[in-house]
Amino acid sequence: MPPQTEAHLEPPAARASHAKRWLAIGALAACLAASSSLASWRDEHAILINTTQSLPNWAFWIDKHRVPTRGDFVVFKAPQTPLITAHFGKVAPPFAKRVYGMPGDLVSREGAVVRINGAEVARLKPASSRGEKLEPGPTGRIPEHCYYLGTAHKDGLDSRYADIGFVCSGTIIGTGDSLL
Q1: SUPFAM superfamilies under this entry (predicted)?
Q2: Is the CB of residue 19 less than 8 Å from the CB of residue 13?
Q3: 3-class DSSP state for residue 179?
Q4: Per-residue pLDDT tens digits for 16-44
Q5: How far apart are CA 173 and CA 94, in angstroms?
Q6: Could you give the count of Cα atoms lying within 13 Å of 49 in the half-sphere of its Cβ?
Q7: What is the Cα–Cα distance from 40 to 32, expressed in whole angstroms?
Q8: What is the pLDDT of residue 35?
Q9: Over the stretch 76-99, which tens digit does the pLDDT of each residue have?
């Protein structure tokens, strides 16, 4: 009768080689999962750098799916008007402003004073810093899915002027939080 043989055992070097291979496969799987998560994050978020003086903050974290509430920062695509093109170029960068008025709020104007639900939120200037005539923005009830966006800066180009007007959901990029 032949002697009993032990089960075949891999030499230690071969086991280490297999362990490295499985470790590499695991690392690759983790990288792919992280890449997919990063792509998903990128599709739902952004970071905006503000280059104007109208807001005191210069960096914003943007959530593309968060519905704005009063006081939030909103980033939106500015309309293409001659005034905006003259100041910001053919393709204006995204604008960031605060939500001062919500759908259903009442916007009114008394001379240069703009009010929302009776509270003063802004004052109109007759002309831009370059001397262009500034047309007053809309008044009345803010439509559903639209917002009155503004800043405390006296030179802010926002909903107080017709070139911006009410900002509606179709032009909103996202709702943001200031980072810096």
Answers
A1: LexA/Signal peptidase
A2: no
A3: coil
A4: 655 666 666 666 566 555 555 555 656 77
A5: 8
A6: 1
A7: 12
A8: 57
A9: 999 999 999 999 999 999 999 999
